[in-house]
Specification:
Elements lengths: L5 E7 L32 E6 L13 E3 L19 E6 L2 E5 L5 E5 L5 E5 L30 E8 L5 E4 L6 H8 L17 E8 L2 E7 L14 H4 L8 E7 L8 H15 L1 H4 L3 E6 L6 H15 L5 E3 L8 H17 L1
Parallel strand pairs: 1-3, 2-4, 9-11, 9-12, 12-13, 13-14
Antiparallel strand pairs: 1-8, 2-7, 5-6, 5-8, 10-11
Helix pairs in contact: 3-5
Length: about 350
């Protein structure tokens, strides 16, 4: 299924049913008095976080959702049936805004979380409600009120513990495929990954974490260049960033300059994102000899003045990935315990 992370929908709650104008009619009862019942309430619209969903693709086809209208009242003081509420299922991690006002309505992060987004109309009053000592035969009723209608913007931010970032062709898709059971598209040209991929990395029998492969960033991504502006938001929910860098780029570019360029894009997009823990992961070590790798690593760290954790891996052969996974698991466990 295609990954879609943005959609707009229209939700309409049900209208309330109208009150009934009726008088009791029975044999030998000349003036039975009013017996018009109230109208039923309209159904409301709710958004429900469903862990089985991982995309907003369904909303590219179905864009309008309407709850059931309440039935009108009837004679013999019968109240109309209220309309059924409507649950619209969305993926966990969906942020909902009102398009017209820009209001943040909710952020659905927990499975089963339910939020009302459109209030159903109230049922109208039947003429029985208006009977009094001075008005024994009221002919007054009220109509049900209209249900609330809203134009909603849905934005999905993937829920992952760890996010991979790096330039196109840095090897992110190969790494997530090597560390998990994810099967992303892998090819030797830029922007092979066009949507985020999620993979569950299992370290032990009861130890695992979710890793997100974000489409490659380029310089100017925070301003809309390339695909980055569409996907930087997905990294905001992650607890740890793994910054993947190609230590042997075939185009002769400087690995240090590549790392600095992406760090700049993170700062430009969000200060919160730039402050997240970020580890440097040197990839494609299988392409260099031990001596050349040591020299390239030393030059990279000196140029960056890097003082954080550094790991060396070969996503293609799997070398170093187990050590990386174990370190990430320890970090996440320590963070959850603190």
């Amino acid at each position: 299924m295609k990954f879609v992370d943005e959609a707009t929908i229209r939700v309409q709650a049900g209208n309330g049913g109208h009150g009934c104008l009726s008088f009791r009619r029975e044999k030998y009862v000349e003036r039975g008095g009013p017996d018009g019942g109230d109208g039923g309430h309209g159904g409301s619209v709710y958004l429900l976080a469903d862990p089985a969903m991982n995309t907003l693709a369904d909303f590219r086809v179905a864009r309008k959702f309407r709850a059931e209208t309440g039935q009108g009242g009837a004679g013999r003081n019968k109240t109309g049936r209220s309309g059924a509420d409507l649950d619209v299922k969305v993926p966990c991690g969906t942020v909902v805004h009102d398009v017209d006002t820009g209001e943040l309505i909710c952020d659905l992060t927990e499975p089963g979380q339910r939020q009302k987004v459109a209030e159903g109309g109230r049922g109208g009053l039947g003429n029985t409600r208006f009977k009094s000592s001075v008005n024994r035969a009221p002919r007054k009723t009220t109509n049900g009120t209209e249900g609330e209608g809203r134009h909603l913007s849905l934005e999905l931010k993937v829920l992952a513990d760890v996010g991979l970032l790096g330039m196109p062709n840095a090897g992110k898709s190969t790494l997530i495929a090597a560390m998990s059971h994810a099967k992303p598209r892998i090819a030797d040209y830029p922007f092979t990954t066009l949507h985020p991929n999620l993979g569950v990395v299992r370290v032990g029998r009861l130890q695992s974490f979710v890793m997100a492969d974000i489409p490659g960033l380029i310089e100017g991504a925070s301003a809309g260049a390339g695909l980055g502006i569409q996907f930087l938001k997905h990294l905001q929910r992650t607890g740890l960033l793994l910054h993947l860098v190609d230590i042997a780029p075939i185009d002769g570019s400087s690995p240090a300059e590549v790392v600095r360029a992406i760090a700049t894009e993170l700062r430009n997009f969000s200060a919160e994102l730039a402050d997240k823990p970020r580890w440097l992961v040197i990839n494609k070590i299988d392409l260099l000899s031990d001596e050349d790798l040591a020299a390239a690593r030393a030059a990279l760290l000196a140029d960056l003045d890097w003082h954080g954790p550094v790991f060396e891996v070969s996503a293609a052969t799997g070398k170093g990935t187990e050590t990386l996974a174990q370190a990430v698991m320890r970090e996440l466990e320590e963070e959850s315990d603190s």
